[in-house]
Design goal:
60% of the residues lie in helices and 7% in strands. It is an alpha/beta fold.
Length: 460
């Protein structure tokens, strides 16, 4: 083994360890930042190791790619707002899938029929998964960016057609493995993969996209692992497998937190009129409360729990809630935050926003931790959350969200809901919490209401 190869393999080995430690770090908010740095450093080592590879004959195009990629990456990191993070991630996965598929195509063009069965199998996987990820992620991006309508796009016989399409792609893949020289099989498989990616994601509602994105992330990872097998590159195999595994586990965890199965997310067209079913929630009169009343209630409470949801993210109200909390704490009020695992539109959405506003991690409580505290909570303040506090999920077994764990704010002594009007949550269901005697509604944009509450509390 030459010194150059040794250096490359050594950098891959250290990078792989750093990826694993990075993932481990990401499993807790306290260590997440360090985990991210470790993974970034691992990626830097892997890139440097690859640049030392003896097969590289010219660096010009690599430098062009590096500059273009870094410019786009830095621009996206700096200017894409937190609320647009799901679609940003979808776009990154689309590029990841495309890169894997293109490497597969170039390898096939270069070596074609001389590839052995093993390499053709690896290339086939790479192109199949890379193609699906590319177009699937682009559709996910278009839905989240509202370039396409967010509701599921459905038609009769959709699932059967999708299944037939996927089965055809797999049959052609097997035919290609048996006859690696038949380029027509290769291109037919590429075309079917691209088409399947579009048709797979079209029937999925925009709000289910985070689960789909995690799943596509997992496909992109597996495509990279297949690339690693095709190119004989160890770090790609390890990183791709880690990516594939973690993406899959994340999608399962999100499904669990919504009490839905992965098949229901992929094939259930949740959010369409037929899938949502009849509304089971009761209608009634909402009790509107004044800002002054809420400010007084909060200022003289012993314990206040904030429960943020998607509305806090759209209103960008994280700093305003932190400011209100600071005023309350200075008056001796105990403040906690109840975080539902699928509040918002992506995993960890609330944690990231609150961290951005410097809310201490120690004040963030998970659903299982905060629910037992609800009966001793004087005021639960719901900030733009709806489904994650909907008691129908607990009380009505016929509800479309039955069984989804909720933050039980209705068990608190008093509930204040900050929302703009009578808008429903992602599930499209009415929420009986809003009509309970314990609940008062403070209408308006969450950020404005919180800022005005903070000012009112400071003057009391
Ligand atoms: P939600 O059910 O979507 O409800 C959001 C509420 O915020 C709405 O009722 C809306 O009412 C209010 N709102 C919107 N903009 C606002 C503003 N500027 N100021 C004040 N209020 C505002 O949100 P959630 O309770 O967080 O539930 C999340 C949903 O997304 C769940 O159903 C979950 O299953 C789903 N989901 C989450 C993930 C994830 O990873 N987090 C993934 C997939 C699906 P108004 O219009 O009346 O203001």
């Amino acid at each position: 083994m030459s010194a150059q190869t040794l250096l490359t393999e050594l950098s891959y080995f250290i990078a792989s360890i750093l990826f694993i430690l990075g993932l481990r770090g990401l499993s807790h908010p306290d260590t997440a930042r360090r985990g991210m740095f470790m993974a970034e450093f691992g990626m830097l080592l892997a890139v440097i190791g690859t640049l030392l590879h003896r097969d590289i004959v010219s660096y010009e195009w690599i430098i062009v790619g590096l500059l273009a990629g870094s410019t786009i990456g830095v621009a996206m990191g700096l200017w894409v707002p937190m609320t647009a993070m799901p679609q940003r991630t979808a776009l990154s996965h689309a590029f990841g899938g495309l890169a894997a598929a293109l490497v597969g195509v170039s390898e096939f063009l270069r070596h074609g029929e001389h590839l052995g069965t093993f390499k053709v199998t690896a290339l086939g996987f790479e192109v199949l998964l890379g193609g699906i990820t590319f177009t699937g992620s682009l559709v996910a991006f278009a839905k989240l960016q509202e370039l396409l309508k967010g509701q599921p796009i459905t038609y009769k016989g959709q699932n059967v057609l999708n299944f037939l399409l996927f089965a055809s792609a797999v049959v052609i893949f097997i035919a290609l493995v048996l006859n690696p020289g038949h380029t027509v099989f290769f291109y037919a498989m590429c075309a079917l993969a691209l088409l399947f990616g579009v048709l797979l994601v079209l029937p999925i509602g925009a709000a289910d996209m985070p689960v789909v994105i995690a799943l596509l992330n997992s496909y992109a990872g597996l495509a990279s692992a297949a690339t690693g097998f095709a190119l004989g590159n160890n770090v790609l195999i390890i990183a791709g497998t880690l990516d594939g595994g973690s993406g899959f586990i994340l999608s399962i965890l999100m499904c669990k937190a919504m009490n839905r199965s992965i098949t229901n997310v992929l094939f259930g067209a949740f959010g369409s009129a037929s899938a949502a079913g009849p509304e089971t929630g009761e209608e009634g009169v909402m009790r509107e409360v004044s800002l002054e009343d809420v400010a007084t209630q909060l200022a003289y409470a012993r314990k206040v729990v904030f429960v943020p949801g998607y509305g806090m993210a759209t209103a960008q109200a994280q700093n305003a809630v932190r400011e209100l909390a600071t005023h309350l704490e200075s008056r001796g009020v105990e403040v906690k935050y109840g975080i539902h695992p699928v509040a918002g539109r992506m995993p960890g959405h609330m944690n990231v926003l609150l961290a951005e506003a410097n809310v201490p991690y120690s004040q963030l409580y998970e659903l299982e931790q905060i629910n037992p505290e609800m009966p001793t909570t004087d005021v639960a303040v719901v900030i733009g959350a709806n489904d994650v506090v909907n008691p129908e999920a607990r009380d009505n077994p016929k509800s479309a969200i039955a069984g989804m764990p909720i933050i039980e704010v209705d068990r608190a002594k008093s509930v204040i809901v900050l929302k703009r009007g009578r808008g429903k949550g992602f599930s499209g269901l009415e929420n009986p919490l809003f009509f309970k005697p314990v609940t008062g509604l403070l209408f308006g944009d969450a950020k404005t209401s919180l800022a005005r509450l903070a000012a009112a509390v400071s003057e009391l």
